[in-house]
Amino acid sequence: MSIESASYQNDQRTNIKGSQRIADYLLALSRSNKRAVLLLADFIMSVVCLYFAIAVRYGYLGNHISPVALCLYAVLPVIGLYAIGFYKGVARSFFDGVMGSVLQLFFVLIVIAQVVLYFHPVSGMPRAVPMLYLFLFFIWLWNSRLTIREILARLQGQRPQRRHMNDYDNVLIYGAGEAGKELLEGLRNSYKYHVVAYIDDDAQLTDAYILGKRIYNADVLVEIVSKLDIAQIFLAMPSISRVRKREIIDKLSDISIKIKELPSLAEIVDGKVTISSMRKIDILDVLDRQTVEPDARLLQKNITGKCVLVTGAGGSIGSELCRQVIKNEPNCLILYELSEFALYSIHQELIALQATHSRYQEIEIVAVIGNVTNEDNLLRIFKQYQIKTVYHAAAYKHVPLVEHNPFEGVINNTKGTYHCARAAIAANVETFVLISTDKAVRPTNVMGATKRLAELVCQGLSNTSGSTCISMVRFGNVLGSSGSVVPVFTKQIEAGRPITVTHPDVTRYFMTIPEASNLVIQAGAMATGGEVFVLNMGEPVKIVDLARRMIHLSGHDTKDAENPNGDIEIVFTGLRAGEKLYEELIIGEDNVEPTDHPLIMQAMEHSFPLDDIEAILFELNNRAKKHDVIWLKAQFKYFVVGYQEGSTSEVSKSKKILIENIG
After folding, report:
1. How far apart, in Å, are the Cα atoms of 394 and each of 309, 319, 321, 529, 573?
2. What integer pLDDT is reported at residue 124 of this predicted model?
3. pTM of the model as a whole
């Protein structure tokens, strides 16, 4: 900490200690005592205002009216204020509407005074005095209440609620607009944060003040953070673009500081959050990725006015699909899920959403516990609710777990897809969309192989599907899903533990869950049957770089050889069973074509006759009883292009295929 910063902190502590005593005394008074103080002050000022009004009328100070009469006339407006309830709210609940009632009262008093003076002139009281007097008194009432409210708010907001001043985080609010002002109001009584100043891009606001907090120009951001010993920066700009947000973050790249942000305007409008809600910076903002506004026509095509079913409705992708589906107003939404708790959670969330949005209240939401391998149950549900669109998100997806439970993985992921798609065809479902993964491309693990087999199942069934349009959508990791690195890293950082990364060169594609879900819906709407759609995941991200950036955004330093005194260490644990260094989105280099959507491509993948796929599916249960893993992996090697058993520590970087012609 610099000498200037230390001096600033000492001054702050001295000011806060002194103001704390004043605030404690004022706030400790009973309500009746506070009211008595205000009544006395208003009466004294009423006498003063009346005296000056008379003096102004005569043009000089003098004794134009007796002191007793002066006090008698001056107390009348105070009695009127008491009668209309002006003193019930004391000072902190004062607002402009109250002064509207005062203005009406004073207008009535002026009319009465003019009538009385016209018919019964009062010695020493000119007719112009009541209007001038009440005008002066009104100014006093307005300004005194605003001043008292502001002083009390400041003093209370500055009171140290903790034992030491060091327990506070000095906060800099970036954005001096309405959101920034409201944020300061919300933080006044905070036990954790002490707002020091504002930063704003508008040069015209430089050196201005908001509620006593100085506004600095964005050009001196780094200097101010150091000078004022800022621990956190709050971005109070709900409409800020992702590009601008990344510029601000990059400007602070050499400083370990926590950055939080207000929610977006869209989320505020949707009622998800309030304007005073703060959250950690979206990790997507530090990734080189731009999003595209969804096509409303595609979003609504297979949903609006139809009955929709989502399998795996309680999972990360499934639950977000449910949220996206209900926004597009289907007739009914069926949640199909094996986990009772996951099903209960998403069902309650959607019911709560219905209660707060009138346009969703006519949608029938049904929670069904079921296994996707139970074709008879699926067929019954499809027919009972006349399902027109199915999003098949149910799957075991955690690579190490499926690697150690291969038959459970293939039965759920591949055979479950087969039974679900067959039931959809039998029930004349219009659209069936399989949620696939980039791990299905040249897989080195059982999970990826089972998902590629699931794609082959859908490709085979699409040729015999009749009126059912079957398609597949393949994408990479989604930020924030269960088991993904972001929530894992977040927990490790919060606990102060080392971040565990499998390999220094491991890379992954990333996308947010909401973006992935609405792209799935849009891709399904473009399908004609049998397509494998690939989402443009942007550039792959090095996991170790992601870890370093998350450490930085949490206000910590990375502990390594160059910085042995850092806070959080990154530990490399080695690739897990079946894990790849690099993920791919297509099997061949040139077998991808663009679509009408800039973020959705179509992969031209090889397929097998349905009979060949069905032959191994019918044999699965018998082989599972014997746990014949050798037979199972032999099928993977035959049907799944590029399947290679084990980790890809031996897979060279030269075999990595990127979709360089995408985007």
Report:
1. 12, 11, 12, 21, 30
2. 63
3. 0.62
DSSP letter (8 states) at residue 282: P
Amino acid symbol at 221: L
Q: By C-alpha distance, which of 83, 104, 89 is closest to 145?
A: 89
576-606 burial, b for 16+ CB within 10 Å, e for fewer? eebbbbbbbbbbeeeebeebebebbbbbebe
Specify whether domain 168-281 bears CATH 3.40.50.720. Answer: yes
What is the enclosing helix (H) or strand (E) of 603?
strand 600-603
Q: What angle do CA 431, 341, 522 make, to 5 degrees?
A: 25
Q: With cut-offs at 50, 70 and 90, classify the pLDDT of residue 379.
A: very high
Amino acid in position 629: V
How many angstroms separate the CA atoms of 510 and 406, rounded? 26
Tell me the CA distances in angstroms from 84 to 42, 51, 92, one per residue in order. Answer: 15, 25, 18
CATH 3.40.50.720 maps onto the chain at 168-281, 296-480+509-536+584-655
Token couple for 155: 């003093």
Residue 380's nearest CA partner among 324, 335, 424 is 424
Main-chain dihedrals φ then ψ at residue 196, nearest 5 degrees: -100, -40
Quote the Cα angle for 289-470-344, to 5°.
70
Give the range among 138-147, 205-214, 324-333, 549-558 with minimum mean pLDDT. 549-558
Cα angle value 598/603/609 (rounded, 5°)? 150
Is residue 387 helix, strand or coil? coil
Q: What are 532's strand-pairing partners?
A: 472, 603
Query: What secondary structure letter does DSSP report for 569?
Result: E
Residues 402, 443 contacting (CB under 8 angstroms): no
**Beta-bridge partner residues of 334:** 309, 366
Amino acid at 297: R
What SS3 class is residue 31? Answer: helix
Mean of all residue pLDDT scores within the chain: 80
**In the prediction, which pLDDT does 391 show?**
98
Looking at this protein, which amino acid is placed at residue 532? V
Residue 412 makes CB contacts below 8 A (sequence gap 6+) with 372, 373, 394, 395, 396, 450
Question: What is the Cα–Cα distance from 156 to 188, expressed in whole angstroms?
Answer: 7
Mean pLDDT for 195-208 is 88
Give the contacts of 141 (CB within 8 A, at least 6 positions apart).
42, 81, 99, 102
SS3 433: strand
Over the stretch 464-520, which tens digit does the pLDDT of each residue have? Answer: 877 899 999 988 777 666 556 777 887 888 788 888 888 888 877 677 788 889 889
- Assign 261 to helix, strand or coil: strand
- Max avg pLDDT among 79-88, 119-128, 350-359, 375-384: 375-384
Collapsed DSSP state (helix, strand, coil) of residue 642: coil
Which architecture characterizes domain 296-480+509-536+584-655 according to CATH? 3-Layer(aba) Sandwich (3.40)
* 29: pLDDT strictly greater than 70: no
User: Position of tokens 């530990």?
Assistant: 571
State how far the Cα of 509 lies from the Cα of 507, in Å rounded to an integer: 7
Q: Assign 27 a pLDDT band (cuts: 50, 70, 90).
A: low
CA angle 626, 627, 633 (to 5 degrees): 125
